[in-house]
Amino acid sequence: MQFSENVARLQPSATLAVSTLAKKLKAEGRDVVDLSAGQPDFDTPEFIAEAGIQGIREGHTRYTPTPGTPALRKAIAATYSQRLGRPVDPSSIVVNSGAKHSLFNAMFSLFGPGDRVLIPVPYWTSYPEMVTLARAEAVPVVGDPARDFHMTPEDLEGAYTPQVKGLLLCTPSNPSGGVYSLDELRAVAEWAKARDIWIIADEIYRLINFKGEGPAPSVLDLPEASRGNVVVVDGASKAFAMTGWRIGHTYSDPALAKKMSDLQSHMTSNPSAPAQQAVLAAYTQWDRSMKEVGKMVEAFKRRRDLATRLFEELLPAFSYVRPDGAFYLYFRVDSLFDERLKDSSAVCTWLLEDAEIAMVPGVAFGDDRYVRMSYATSDELLEEGIRRLAKAVVER
Description:
The chain is built from 12 helices and 13 strands.
Protein backbone atom coordinates (compact mmCIF):
# COMPACT_ATOMS: atom_id res chain seq x y z
CA MET A 1 0.00 0.00 0.00
CA GLN A 2 1.32 3.44 -0.92
CA PHE A 3 1.22 6.08 1.79
CA SER A 4 1.81 9.80 1.68
CA GLU A 5 5.35 11.04 2.27
CA ASN A 6 3.85 12.85 5.27
CA VAL A 7 3.62 9.58 7.20
CA ALA A 8 5.87 7.18 5.28
CA ARG A 9 8.70 7.40 7.85
CA LEU A 10 6.46 7.81 10.89
CA GLN A 11 6.99 5.37 13.77
CA PRO A 12 4.38 4.55 16.44
CA SER A 13 4.85 5.80 19.99
CA ALA A 14 7.08 3.26 21.72
CA THR A 15 5.83 4.23 25.18
CA LEU A 16 2.20 3.69 24.24
CA ALA A 17 3.07 0.45 22.43
CA VAL A 18 4.69 -1.06 25.53
CA SER A 19 1.83 0.05 27.77
CA THR A 20 -0.69 -1.45 25.34
CA LEU A 21 1.17 -4.77 25.25
CA ALA A 22 1.39 -4.87 29.04
CA LYS A 23 -2.37 -4.30 29.31
CA LYS A 24 -2.98 -7.08 26.76
CA LEU A 25 -0.86 -9.56 28.73
CA LYS A 26 -2.62 -8.59 31.95
CA ALA A 27 -5.97 -9.19 30.26
CA GLU A 28 -4.71 -12.66 29.32
CA GLY A 29 -4.07 -13.40 32.98
CA ARG A 30 -0.32 -12.70 33.12
CA ASP A 31 0.97 -11.21 36.39
CA VAL A 32 2.66 -8.24 34.73
CA VAL A 33 4.15 -5.42 36.82
CA ASP A 34 3.74 -2.44 34.50
CA LEU A 35 6.55 0.07 35.05
CA SER A 36 6.16 1.60 31.60
CA ALA A 37 3.31 4.05 32.16
CA GLY A 38 4.05 7.75 31.81
CA GLN A 39 1.16 8.87 33.94
CA PRO A 40 0.40 9.32 37.64
CA ASP A 41 -1.37 6.43 39.31
CA PHE A 42 -3.47 8.86 41.38
CA ASP A 43 -7.04 9.86 40.67
CA THR A 44 -7.75 13.40 39.51
CA PRO A 45 -8.33 15.54 42.64
CA GLU A 46 -12.01 15.34 43.50
CA PHE A 47 -12.79 19.06 43.31
CA ILE A 48 -11.33 19.20 39.78
CA ALA A 49 -13.24 16.12 38.64
CA GLU A 50 -16.46 17.49 40.15
CA ALA A 51 -16.01 20.71 38.19
CA GLY A 52 -15.87 18.67 34.99
CA ILE A 53 -19.02 16.78 35.92
CA GLN A 54 -20.76 20.02 36.84
CA GLY A 55 -19.67 21.46 33.52
CA ILE A 56 -21.49 18.69 31.69
CA ARG A 57 -24.60 19.24 33.82
CA GLU A 58 -24.50 22.97 33.05
CA GLY A 59 -24.36 22.36 29.32
CA HIS A 60 -20.64 22.90 28.65
CA THR A 61 -20.77 20.26 25.93
CA ARG A 62 -20.60 22.36 22.78
CA TYR A 63 -17.89 24.04 20.73
CA THR A 64 -15.77 26.59 22.54
CA PRO A 65 -13.49 29.19 20.96
CA THR A 66 -10.61 27.40 19.20
CA PRO A 67 -7.82 28.50 21.60
CA GLY A 68 -9.90 27.68 24.68
CA THR A 69 -12.59 29.38 26.71
CA PRO A 70 -11.87 33.00 27.68
CA ALA A 71 -12.19 32.07 31.35
CA LEU A 72 -9.59 29.30 31.14
CA ARG A 73 -7.12 31.34 29.09
CA LYS A 74 -7.47 34.18 31.60
CA ALA A 75 -6.90 31.82 34.53
CA ILE A 76 -3.80 30.26 32.94
CA ALA A 77 -2.47 33.72 32.00
CA ALA A 78 -2.88 34.76 35.64
CA THR A 79 -0.45 32.02 36.74
CA TYR A 80 2.12 33.31 34.24
CA SER A 81 1.51 36.87 35.44
CA GLN A 82 2.35 35.75 38.96
CA ARG A 83 5.51 33.97 37.78
CA LEU A 84 6.73 36.87 35.63
CA GLY A 85 5.68 39.70 37.91
CA ARG A 86 3.86 41.49 35.11
CA PRO A 87 0.49 41.21 33.37
CA VAL A 88 0.25 38.46 30.76
CA ASP A 89 -2.29 38.87 27.97
CA PRO A 90 -4.58 35.82 27.69
CA SER A 91 -4.06 36.05 23.92
CA SER A 92 -0.61 34.55 24.63
CA ILE A 93 -2.29 31.32 25.74
CA VAL A 94 -3.60 28.61 23.43
CA VAL A 95 -5.33 25.65 25.10
CA ASN A 96 -4.84 22.33 23.33
CA SER A 97 -5.94 18.71 23.50
CA GLY A 98 -3.01 17.68 25.68
CA ALA A 99 0.61 18.86 25.80
CA LYS A 100 1.46 16.50 22.94
CA HIS A 101 -0.94 18.52 20.80
CA SER A 102 0.65 21.73 22.12
CA LEU A 103 4.10 20.53 21.04
CA PHE A 104 2.88 19.56 17.59
CA ASN A 105 1.20 22.93 17.05
CA ALA A 106 4.39 24.75 18.01
CA MET A 107 6.66 22.65 15.80
CA PHE A 108 4.33 22.70 12.81
CA SER A 109 3.92 26.47 13.09
CA LEU A 110 7.63 27.28 13.49
CA PHE A 111 9.55 24.75 11.37
CA GLY A 112 9.41 23.47 7.83
CA PRO A 113 11.45 22.08 4.93
CA GLY A 114 15.12 22.99 5.14
CA ASP A 115 15.00 23.76 8.87
CA ARG A 116 16.92 21.79 11.47
CA VAL A 117 15.80 21.29 15.08
CA LEU A 118 18.21 20.29 17.86
CA ILE A 119 16.88 17.57 20.17
CA PRO A 120 18.93 16.70 23.27
CA VAL A 121 19.39 12.97 23.89
CA PRO A 122 17.69 11.31 25.69
CA TYR A 123 14.47 12.78 24.34
CA TRP A 124 10.79 12.05 24.65
CA THR A 125 9.96 9.59 21.92
CA SER A 126 7.54 11.84 19.97
CA TYR A 127 9.89 14.82 19.49
CA PRO A 128 11.71 13.57 16.36
CA GLU A 129 8.49 12.30 14.83
CA MET A 130 6.81 15.68 15.26
CA VAL A 131 9.77 17.45 13.66
CA THR A 132 9.57 14.99 10.77
CA LEU A 133 5.85 15.69 10.36
CA ALA A 134 6.73 19.37 10.05
CA ARG A 135 9.09 18.31 7.21
CA ALA A 136 12.08 19.63 9.12
CA GLU A 137 15.15 17.66 10.16
CA ALA A 138 15.57 16.40 13.72
CA VAL A 139 19.19 16.63 14.91
CA PRO A 140 19.98 14.57 18.03
CA VAL A 141 22.57 16.11 20.36
CA VAL A 142 24.16 13.85 22.98
CA GLY A 143 25.27 15.35 26.27
CA ASP A 144 27.63 13.96 28.88
CA PRO A 145 26.14 11.25 31.16
CA ALA A 146 28.31 12.67 33.95
CA ARG A 147 26.17 15.83 33.71
CA ASP A 148 22.94 13.80 33.55
CA PHE A 149 22.97 14.53 29.79
CA HIS A 150 22.27 18.24 30.37
CA MET A 151 23.17 20.36 27.37
CA THR A 152 25.91 22.96 27.42
CA PRO A 153 26.54 25.67 24.81
CA GLU A 154 29.56 23.63 23.70
CA ASP A 155 27.38 20.56 23.06
CA LEU A 156 24.91 22.63 21.06
CA GLU A 157 27.55 24.55 19.13
CA GLY A 158 28.96 21.25 17.89
CA ALA A 159 25.64 20.51 16.18
CA TYR A 160 24.91 24.04 15.01
CA THR A 161 24.54 25.06 11.38
CA PRO A 162 22.82 28.15 9.96
CA GLN A 163 19.80 25.94 9.17
CA VAL A 164 19.12 25.32 12.87
CA LYS A 165 15.88 27.11 13.78
CA GLY A 166 14.81 25.35 16.97
CA LEU A 167 15.85 23.64 20.19
CA LEU A 168 13.64 21.34 22.23
CA LEU A 169 14.28 21.46 25.95
CA CYS A 170 12.50 19.22 28.46
CA THR A 171 13.11 19.80 32.16
CA PRO A 172 12.35 17.92 34.33
CA SER A 173 13.23 15.36 31.70
CA ASN A 174 11.23 12.54 30.29
CA PRO A 175 12.87 9.97 30.29
CA SER A 176 15.73 10.74 32.69
CA GLY A 177 14.15 12.83 35.45
CA GLY A 178 17.08 15.23 35.20
CA VAL A 179 16.41 18.85 36.19
CA TYR A 180 18.37 21.76 34.74
CA SER A 181 19.62 24.36 37.18
CA LEU A 182 18.85 28.01 36.50
CA ASP A 183 22.49 28.62 35.57
CA GLU A 184 22.40 25.76 33.07
CA LEU A 185 19.20 27.17 31.55
CA ARG A 186 20.74 30.64 31.35
CA ALA A 187 23.75 29.35 29.42
CA VAL A 188 21.57 27.45 26.94
CA ALA A 189 19.05 30.28 26.54
CA GLU A 190 21.75 32.88 25.91
CA TRP A 191 23.37 30.60 23.33
CA ALA A 192 20.03 30.18 21.53
CA LYS A 193 19.20 33.88 21.70
CA ALA A 194 22.53 34.84 20.12
CA ARG A 195 21.70 32.60 17.14
CA ASP A 196 18.02 33.54 16.88
CA ILE A 197 16.93 29.99 17.67
CA TRP A 198 13.49 29.23 19.03
CA ILE A 199 13.39 27.29 22.29
CA ILE A 200 10.39 25.04 22.78
CA ALA A 201 10.42 24.49 26.54
CA ASP A 202 8.48 21.37 27.50
CA GLU A 203 7.61 22.03 31.16
CA ILE A 204 4.86 19.47 31.61
CA TYR A 205 6.72 18.01 34.65
CA ARG A 206 7.76 21.38 36.14
CA LEU A 207 5.66 20.98 39.30
CA ILE A 208 6.99 17.47 39.97
CA ASN A 209 10.33 18.56 41.34
CA PHE A 210 12.35 17.06 44.22
CA LYS A 211 15.31 19.44 44.08
CA GLY A 212 14.76 22.38 46.41
CA GLU A 213 11.42 23.93 47.25
CA GLY A 214 8.70 24.53 44.69
CA PRO A 215 8.68 23.96 40.93
CA ALA A 216 11.73 23.19 38.82
CA PRO A 217 13.61 26.14 37.30
CA SER A 218 12.10 27.48 34.08
CA VAL A 219 13.39 29.53 31.18
CA LEU A 220 10.80 32.08 32.29
CA ASP A 221 12.71 32.48 35.56
CA LEU A 222 15.52 34.08 33.55
CA PRO A 223 15.68 37.83 32.98
CA GLU A 224 14.34 38.85 29.59
CA ALA A 225 17.86 39.87 28.52
CA SER A 226 18.90 36.20 28.76
CA ARG A 227 16.14 34.67 26.70
CA GLY A 228 15.01 35.15 23.15
CA ASN A 229 12.15 33.44 21.35
CA VAL A 230 10.50 30.90 23.63
CA VAL A 231 7.36 28.76 23.52
CA VAL A 232 6.45 27.20 26.85
CA VAL A 233 4.45 23.96 26.74
CA ASP A 234 2.62 22.89 29.88
CA GLY A 235 -0.69 21.39 30.89
CA ALA A 236 -2.79 19.54 33.43
CA SER A 237 -1.89 15.97 32.55
CA LYS A 238 1.01 15.10 34.84
CA ALA A 239 0.90 17.37 37.89
CA PHE A 240 -2.89 17.25 38.30
CA ALA A 241 -3.22 13.54 37.37
CA MET A 242 -5.39 14.39 34.37
CA THR A 243 -3.76 12.49 31.49
CA GLY A 244 -7.08 11.27 30.10
CA TRP A 245 -8.73 14.69 30.23
CA ARG A 246 -6.38 15.86 27.42
CA ILE A 247 -5.74 19.53 28.23
CA GLY A 248 -2.41 21.20 27.54
CA HIS A 249 -1.47 24.75 26.61
CA THR A 250 1.20 26.94 25.09
CA TYR A 251 2.44 30.32 26.24
CA SER A 252 4.10 32.38 23.52
CA ASP A 253 4.19 35.67 21.68
CA PRO A 254 0.57 36.55 20.75
CA ALA A 255 1.41 36.57 17.02
CA LEU A 256 2.60 32.95 17.21
CA ALA A 257 -0.33 32.05 19.44
CA LYS A 258 -2.67 33.33 16.71
CA LYS A 259 -0.97 31.13 14.10
CA MET A 260 -1.18 28.08 16.35
CA SER A 261 -4.84 28.80 17.00
CA ASP A 262 -5.48 29.08 13.27
CA LEU A 263 -3.77 25.72 12.73
CA GLN A 264 -5.77 24.14 15.52
CA SER A 265 -9.01 25.44 14.03
CA HIS A 266 -8.48 23.11 11.07
CA MET A 267 -7.38 20.11 13.14
CA THR A 268 -9.46 19.71 16.30
CA SER A 269 -11.65 22.83 16.41
CA ASN A 270 -11.24 23.19 20.17
CA PRO A 271 -10.26 21.17 23.25
CA SER A 272 -12.93 19.24 25.12
CA ALA A 273 -15.43 21.65 26.67
CA PRO A 274 -16.11 19.66 29.89
CA ALA A 275 -12.37 19.06 30.37
CA GLN A 276 -11.75 22.79 30.10
CA GLN A 277 -14.24 23.35 32.92
CA ALA A 278 -12.38 20.87 35.10
CA VAL A 279 -9.00 22.48 34.39
CA LEU A 280 -10.51 25.91 35.03
CA ALA A 281 -11.18 24.78 38.61
CA ALA A 282 -7.54 23.69 38.94
CA TYR A 283 -6.22 27.08 37.82
CA THR A 284 -8.72 29.29 39.62
CA GLN A 285 -8.29 27.38 42.88
CA TRP A 286 -4.51 27.33 42.59
CA ASP A 287 -3.67 27.04 46.28
CA ARG A 288 -5.98 24.09 46.62
CA SER A 289 -4.46 22.50 43.53
CA MET A 290 -0.94 22.98 44.88
CA LYS A 291 -1.87 21.13 48.07
CA GLU A 292 -2.99 18.16 45.99
CA VAL A 293 0.11 18.36 43.82
CA GLY A 294 2.26 18.50 46.95
CA LYS A 295 0.80 15.20 48.18
CA MET A 296 1.56 13.51 44.87
CA VAL A 297 5.07 14.94 44.68
CA GLU A 298 5.76 13.68 48.21
CA ALA A 299 4.71 10.18 47.11
CA PHE A 300 6.80 10.34 43.92
CA LYS A 301 9.83 11.44 45.91
CA ARG A 302 9.36 8.59 48.36
CA ARG A 303 9.16 6.16 45.45
CA ARG A 304 12.22 7.72 43.83
CA ASP A 305 14.12 7.11 47.05
CA LEU A 306 12.81 3.54 47.25
CA ALA A 307 13.80 2.78 43.65
CA THR A 308 17.31 4.21 43.95
CA ARG A 309 17.87 2.45 47.29
CA LEU A 310 16.85 -0.90 45.79
CA PHE A 311 19.07 -0.32 42.77
CA GLU A 312 22.05 0.41 45.02
CA GLU A 313 21.27 -2.69 47.07
CA LEU A 314 20.25 -5.20 44.40
CA LEU A 315 21.62 -3.85 41.11
CA PRO A 316 24.82 -2.00 41.97
CA ALA A 317 26.31 -2.60 38.51
CA PHE A 318 23.47 -0.69 36.81
CA SER A 319 24.26 3.00 36.62
CA TYR A 320 21.39 5.47 36.34
CA VAL A 321 20.59 9.16 36.10
CA ARG A 322 19.55 10.36 39.54
CA PRO A 323 16.04 11.70 38.98
CA ASP A 324 15.35 15.07 40.57
CA GLY A 325 11.91 15.42 38.98
CA ALA A 326 9.15 13.69 36.99
CA PHE A 327 8.67 9.98 37.89
CA TYR A 328 11.18 7.96 35.87
CA LEU A 329 14.39 6.05 36.50
CA TYR A 330 16.62 5.89 33.43
CA PHE A 331 19.22 3.16 33.86
CA ARG A 332 21.89 1.56 31.76
CA VAL A 333 21.52 -2.07 30.59
CA ASP A 334 24.17 -2.55 27.89
CA SER A 335 26.14 -4.76 30.30
CA LEU A 336 23.44 -7.39 29.55
CA PHE A 337 23.94 -7.30 25.78
CA ASP A 338 24.98 -10.58 24.15
CA GLU A 339 24.06 -12.72 21.14
CA ARG A 340 20.45 -12.99 22.32
CA LEU A 341 19.99 -9.60 23.96
CA LYS A 342 21.45 -7.39 21.26
CA ASP A 343 19.82 -4.10 22.26
CA SER A 344 17.49 -2.39 24.73
CA SER A 345 14.39 -3.62 22.89
CA ALA A 346 15.54 -7.21 23.27
CA VAL A 347 16.23 -6.62 26.97
CA CYS A 348 12.72 -5.22 27.51
CA THR A 349 11.12 -8.05 25.54
CA TRP A 350 13.03 -10.60 27.63
CA LEU A 351 12.00 -8.91 30.88
CA LEU A 352 8.36 -8.73 29.81
CA GLU A 353 8.16 -12.33 28.64
CA ASP A 354 10.33 -14.00 31.30
CA ALA A 355 10.09 -11.77 34.36
CA GLU A 356 6.72 -10.13 33.58
CA ILE A 357 7.99 -6.56 34.00
CA ALA A 358 7.05 -3.89 31.47
CA MET A 359 9.53 -1.08 30.84
CA VAL A 360 10.43 1.07 27.82
CA PRO A 361 13.62 0.48 25.79
CA GLY A 362 16.07 3.35 25.61
CA VAL A 363 16.17 3.21 21.82
CA ALA A 364 12.81 4.99 21.93
CA PHE A 365 14.56 7.90 23.63
CA GLY A 366 17.60 8.01 21.39
CA ASP A 367 20.06 5.95 23.48
CA ASP A 368 19.98 2.19 23.04
CA ARG A 369 22.11 1.58 26.14
CA TYR A 370 19.33 2.52 28.55
CA VAL A 371 15.87 1.51 29.74
CA ARG A 372 13.19 3.73 31.30
CA MET A 373 11.30 2.60 34.37
CA SER A 374 8.31 4.54 35.68
CA TYR A 375 7.76 4.72 39.42
CA ALA A 376 4.27 6.18 39.01
CA THR A 377 2.86 3.11 40.69
CA SER A 378 2.37 1.83 44.22
CA ASP A 379 5.36 1.31 46.49
CA GLU A 380 4.52 -2.40 46.65
CA LEU A 381 4.41 -2.91 42.88
CA LEU A 382 7.53 -0.81 42.40
CA GLU A 383 9.50 -2.93 44.88
CA GLU A 384 8.13 -6.14 43.38
CA GLY A 385 9.14 -5.03 39.88
CA ILE A 386 12.69 -4.12 40.88
CA ARG A 387 13.12 -7.36 42.80
CA ARG A 388 11.93 -9.30 39.74
CA LEU A 389 14.43 -7.37 37.64
CA ALA A 390 17.27 -8.16 40.03
CA LYS A 391 16.29 -11.84 40.17
CA ALA A 392 16.16 -12.08 36.37
CA VAL A 393 19.59 -10.47 36.04
CA VAL A 394 21.14 -12.78 38.65
CA GLU A 395 19.61 -15.91 37.11
CA ARG A 396 20.82 -14.88 33.68
